[in-house]
Design a protein that fits this description.
mainly alpha
């Protein structure tokens, strides 16, 4: 180092010492170093708080933007795996609806049409087709989401990495739920195509209100699938939830009958199921005028989805594995 460099270095050191002495001699700092006047613990805490830089709390809009971005990040991780299996996911949900259509719609329906007329549609086959859309979206949204989380928790052991993400627990739930909604919509779209082919009613099944109810139904059961996937300890436990929750709801959710014609004693049980409101709404959209649509089904399904989202966020916040 040359002479000019050494002199510049010494000058910077003396300048730093000068500013340190000047800071210590300020009225706010001097009492801390004075023997005559020692600061109490309360005064030191107050001084420390005054010297801290104020932290600006993010605005509500900024928080919502961050939540949406984190949700899409979680969803994108599932979508990268899901996009390579779109035909498989869409076809897997067609098996049960096609069996029900052949057995109940064409088999049992041909006999029922001779003795009574359905409350919606021109035949019993047309009557159950909207219920098949609701049923398929429920099964795939719930099952796909549950098995996806179980696979990450119990087999691939990648779930612990996701819990370390520096994002809100609600974003974790919404991202997983969004992936379940996409799975349900894939299968529901295939069943809708079958319904259009059987009935020839294109615009009865292809309209925004119809898809809104399908999306809400997928959101409800994908959210339920997230909660179940976080709590089960084995795949056998998933089978128990499926046998005691999803299968009974498939037959009691108004898929094969009109819930309004049930005895009064059974109505509380049937109308406590979210699938009932989806089936009734889809059936009204497909075959009835808009004035007869049960508008209350939308806020009820939305309420189910919101409640399950908060429960799922709480579960993510307390999840240990």
């Amino acid at each position: 180092m040359n002479l000019s460099g050494e002199l510049s270095h010494i000058a910077r050191q003396w300048k730093a010492v000068f500013y340190a002495i000047r800071f210590v001699n300020t009225p706010r700092v001097r009492p801390m170093f004075s023997k005559e006047s020692r600061l109490s613990s309360e005064d030191r805490a107050s001084f420390s708080a005054q010297c801290q830089f104020p932290q600006r709390k993010p605005s509500r809009v900024r928080q919502l933007k961050n939540l949406a971005a984190d949700t899409l990040t979680v969803f994108w991780g599932d979508w990268l795996d899901l996009r390579s299996r779109i035909p498989q996911v869409a076809a897997s949900g067609l098996v049960s609806p096609l069996i029900y259509i052949l057995a109940f719609g064409l088999g049992l329906g041909s006999s029922l049409d001779k003795v009574s007329a359905p409350t919606a549609g021109d035949s019993y086959l047309e009557f159950i087709l909207p219920g098949m859309v609701a049923l398929s979206s429920m099964v795939i949204s719930f099952g796909g989401t549950t098995f996806s989380i179980c696979g990450e928790r119990l087999f691939s052991k990648t779930f612990e990495e996701m819990l370390l993400y520096p994002i809100h627990p609600l974003a974790l739930h919404l991202g997983k739920m969004l992936a379940g909604i996409v799975r349900g919509l894939m299968t529901a779209s295939a069943v809708i195509l079958v319904a259009v082919l059987f009935t020839g009613r294109v615009w009865s099944f292809l309209n925004p209100l119809f898809f809104l109810l399908v999306i809400l139904n997928c959101a409800v059961f994908a959210g339920l699938g997230v909660i179940v996937g976080l709590n089960v300890k084995s795949l056998e436990s998933v089978g128990l939830f499926n046998n005691f929750l999803i299968v009974p709801m498939s037959f009691l959710g108004g898929t094969f009958f009109d819930p309004t014609t049930l005895p009064v004693a059974l109505k509380p049980l049937v109308f406590a199921l979210p699938l009932t409101y989806t089936t009734m709404g889809l059936r009204a959209i497909a075959y009835k005028p808009l004035s007869e649509f049960p508008w209350y089904s939308i806020p009820i399904l939305l309420g189910f989805a919101i409640a399950l989202s908060f429960l799922g966020a709480q579960q993510f916040a307390n999840q240990q594995d």
